[in-house]
Specification:
Blueprint: E1 24-25, E2 32-38, E3 48-56, H1 60-70, E4 79-80, E5 89-97, H2 103-113, E6 117-124, E7 133-143, H3 149-163, E8 165-166, H4 180-188, H5 196-221, E9 231-235, E10 241-244, H6 247-255, E11 259-265, H7 277-288, H8 292-298, E12 303-306, E13 308-309, E14 312-319, E15 322-330, H9 335-343
Parallel strand pairs: 2-5
Antiparallel strand pairs: 1-7, 2-7, 3-5, 3-6, 4-5, 7-15, 8-13, 9-10, 9-11, 11-12, 14-15
Helix pairs in contact: 4-5
Length: 353
Amino acid sequence: MSPLPSEMGPPPFITPELPGVGGVIKAEPAHFVVEELPLYLPEGAGPHLHLRLSREGMTTRALADRLAHLFELERGDVGFAGLKDKQARAVQSFSLPLASLTLEQAAQMIEDGLPVKVLDAGRHQNKLKTGHLLGNHFTILVAGTQPGALATARAVAAALGERGLPNFYGQQRFGREGDNAAQGRLALKGRGPRDKWLRKLLLNAWQSALFNAWLARRIERGDFTRLVGGDLAKKTDTGGMFTTDDAALEQPRLDAGQITYTGPMFGKKMRWPNEPAAAYEREILEEEGVDQAGLKKSGLMGSRRAGRLMVENLSFSETPEGLMFSFSLPKGSYATVLLREFIKSEAELPETD
């Protein structure tokens, strides 16, 4: 019996004909630096303190819990835009509803009470919410690379500059044992955990696995660098979405990186493309044995995800330990998905949020 789409193994490389540089991602936090690119800056007035913090060796949720405890707040009062890896040096923003404290008082309490550094602070009217960021900038050491790694990396980077990067979900999305998607499929059938947070996590992993399967098949068909009739495209500058019924007409914009096609994050309110693009998405869902009624019962709302990325600010240089990479990715995209194209193996991190 053929495996289900959600049981797909590691996704294909987009540069399979090129060798890898080898090496591993260094586990030391100082060698995996991630900095949030904010969607907006604090307005300068309001009841919420927005604090830009530098931390390492601590998950985002753990730091949010400690901030809540420090200021005697409810856990849900602490806002943050995204999750960052534990084994990393992360710069990210948190918001706290502290109208009675000055910026200086709050910053002093944080640095005195927690192993973090306050880089900046300002007031804003609203709580910081998940997704309130443009993306992330990464500086990552790949240690123990092979001889000639710099020339190899240049060749891979040139190919990615022409083809783009598949916006796969990284293996971290599927849990330490890699079975979160399988557990999510059980939850979809009503046999999963009762805990709401865990159930949502597993269902999201199942959605992600189906997206990866859809994108892998698109690559296998030879449609990664070209539009398919009916594709739902997204403008890379504004995020606006539209249907590309005339694929040939819109292809130059895809080539220029002005737009990208999107793929399915299945759910009851997901916007579908037109034919024939819709047929490829239905195929995935049908093979999984899930229909619209099942999606509705699951509670998954559904959305769209960009399928192809053009990596910004990509550079790399030799160090005594290997290659140091620097690049930016939009929110929700995985640094390890980019690095696996260079390493030519699964680029994993020891532990993530």
